[in-house]
């Protein structure tokens, strides 16, 4: 059971296999269980990043809510955006290297979408949060070294701020949890409102 603002709610379902999101929810003290979504992520170019992550997060939440109509489901999606270009998860190490080269020495945005769904998807809500991340200017050798230390293939933009982030990141403006993949402050603020719907 989840108690927020004096109200008691059922444990939520996290529609994500991401260990980082599980870690963040656990750290925030929000009881949950994981049921992985089979919804495909859309990384289409030309869509406003905040809209794209909201759509993806909602798609993930709805796909799981259809199987658990009596529960509240949380879906999330994170992307990196620079100059209007979307950076999702790299296809392979060469793609990861390309992404880090393009992000080197620049400030980009990290958007995470958070969506809630319940009653099989009859009720839903979606939000997005943005943080700004400035990369150090990286040499080819520094990029190669970073990719040896971190599994970049399951991470938007081919990096993780919480894993050897000091090797590549100069500064973060905004919520660090958001850069990790789940802005817990937003979840804690919006989940009680959603549960009262």
What descriptors fit this protein?
197 residues; alpha+beta; seven-stranded mixed β-sheet; 6 helices; 28% strand
Characterization of this structure:
This protein has 197 residues and is α+β, with helices and mostly antiparallel strands. Helix content is 32%, strand content 28%. The chain has six helices and nine strands. It has helices at 19-27, 49-65, 93-103, 140-149, 176-180, 184-195; strands at residues 2-4, 7-9, 12-14, 32-34, 73-82, 85-87, 107-118, 123-135, 169-173. β1 (2-4) and β2 (7-9) form a beta hairpin. The longest helix has 17 residues, at 49-65. It is elongated, with a radius of gyration of 17 Å.
Q: What is the tally of beta strands?
A: 9
Number of helices: 6
Shape: elongated
Overall mean pLDDT: 94
Percent in helix: 25-40%
Strand % is 25-35%
The whole-angstrom Rg is 17 Å
Secondary-structure element series: EEEHEHEEHEEHEHH
Q: Any low-confidence stretches, pLDDT <50, length ≥5?
A: none
Straight-line distance between termini: 18 Å
Structural class: alpha+beta
Largest sheet: 7 strands, mixed
List the helices and strands and how they pair.
Blueprint: E1 2-4, E2 7-9, E3 12-14, H1 19-27, E4 32-34, H2 49-65, E5 73-82, E6 85-87, H3 93-103, E7 107-118, E8 123-135, H4 140-149, E9 169-173, H5 176-180, H6 184-195
Parallel strand pairs: 3-4, 3-5
Antiparallel strand pairs: 1-2, 5-6, 5-7, 7-8, 8-9
Helix pairs in contact: 3-4
């Amino acid at each position: 059971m989840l108690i927020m603002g004096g109200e008691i709610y059922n444990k939520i379902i996290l529609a994500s296999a991401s260990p980082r999101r599980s870690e963040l929810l656990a750290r925030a003290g929000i009881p949950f269980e994981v049921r992985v979504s089979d919804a495909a992520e859309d990384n289409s170019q030309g869509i406003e990043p905040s809209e794209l992550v909201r759509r993806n997060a909602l798609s993930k939440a709805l796909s799981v809510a259809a199987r658990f109509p009596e529960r509240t489901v949380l879906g999330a999606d994170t992307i990196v955006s620079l100059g209007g270009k979307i950076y999702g998860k790299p296809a392979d190490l060469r793609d990861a290297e390309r992404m880090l080269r393009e992000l080197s020495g620049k400030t980009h945005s990290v958007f995470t979408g958070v969506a809630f769904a319940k009653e099989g998807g009859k009720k839903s809500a979606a939000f997005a949060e943005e943080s700004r991340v400035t990369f150090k200017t990286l040499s080819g050798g520094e990029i190669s070294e970073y990719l040896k230390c971190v599994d970049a293939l399951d991470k938007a933009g081919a990096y993780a701020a919480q894993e050897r982030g000091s090797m590549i990141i100069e500064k973060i403006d905004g919520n660090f949890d958001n850069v990790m993949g789940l802005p817990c402050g937003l979840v804690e603020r919006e989940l009680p409102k959603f549960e009262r719907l």
